[in-house]
Design goal:
Blueprint: E1 3-6, E2 9-18, H1 26-34, E3 42-49, H2 52-57, H3 82-95, E4 99-106, E5 114-116, H4 122-125, E6 132-135, H5 137-140, H6 145-151, E7 155-163, H7 168-183, E8 198-207, E9 213-215, E10 223-225, E11 230-234, E12 237-240, E13 245-248, E14 259-264
This protein binds zinc ion.
Length: 265
């Protein structure tokens, strides 16, 4: 990899990224197994490993989170990292494409699969096998590959394929890639079962104010939160939700000014 597959007929260019987080290697295995059997009929499909050095080491990243570097205003110290250099290479590929599918998975047991995209991606997302689509990441947790595509007027879709300890995650990734290639017209059209997708919206990201942020409990992804419910304590301050909604990616034991959780409705 990278692998560029061209069909005999003209068509758009799509990019599939795997291993943007190097420890989410299941995506690499899935595309390696799929590629030999792919018959591209039209357009161009580029398949790329996101963070090769982190994939080799089986770590999320080596110096800084690659999936926060695709934004304006990246701090100078992060620009000295391997991941920053890698992001500049990936941007060249993204610039040349119309649509991105970025494959991710979770280390939290029983994580629900979901898609991340903005309104421009809803039509395509509707053809992918996911029960839920979440928007609002670009504004509240910017810097992802999908955010970059949206920012340059293209379509970025990130597929969170569920818990990586469950073999089903690989299966979801495989089905998603095939449904994506079909919806984009790159491979022979497959029957897609359009199902009703739930749509959710991220409203804000809570950044820790101190290095003593502690969650009130271990929250599951999308766990419902009541109005005024205690989410955690940041130093001595109680952090309560101002309205009903859900939390996503909640974690503690962080330094100050780090991503503690996303809140959405
Ligand atoms: Zn990831």
């Amino acid at each position: 990899m990278p692998i560029t597959l061209k069909g005999p007929r003209p068509g758009g260019t799509s990019i599939i990224l795997v291993g943007v987080h190097g420890d989410e290697r299941f995506g690499v295995a899935v595309v390696k197994a799929l590629i030999p059997a792919l018959r591209i009929r039209s357009g161009t499909v580029v398949i790329l490993p996101g963070n090769p050095r982190a994939i080799r080491k089986n770590v999320r990243y080596t110096e800084t989170n690659l999936n926060r570097l695709f934004k304006a205003n990246v701090p100078t110290h992060q620009k000295r990292s391997y991941e920053w250099r890698r992001a500049q290479i990936l941007k060249k590929y993204l610039d040349s494409a119309d649509v991105l599918l970025d494959i991710h998975g979770s280390f939290t047991p029983r994580s629900l699969p979901f898609l991340i995209c903005e309104q421009s991606g809803f039509n395509l997302a509707g053809q992918l096998p996911f029960p839920m689509v979440v928007s609002g990441f670009d504004d509240n947790q910017p810097g992802g590959t999908d955010c970059y595509m949206n920012r340059i007027g293209k379509i970025g879709i990130c597929a969170e394929c569920g818990y990586l300890g469950d073999p089903e995650a690989k299966n979801i990734a495989k089905k998603t890639i095939l449904a994506f290639l079909s919806a984009r017209g790159h491979i022979r059209a497959r029957k897609t079962s359009r199902r009703k997708q739930q749509r959710k919206q991220i409203e804000y990201m809570y950044l820790t104010k101190t290095s003593r942020f502690k969650l009130a409990k271990a929250f599951k992804d999308f766990e419902p939160i009541k109005k005024a419910q205690l989410i955690g304590k940041d130093g001595d301050e109680e952090i309560r939700s101002k309205k009903a909604g859900f939390v996503l990616f909640a974690r503690d034991g962080l330094p100050a000014n780090d991503e503690a959780y996303l809140f959405g409705v």
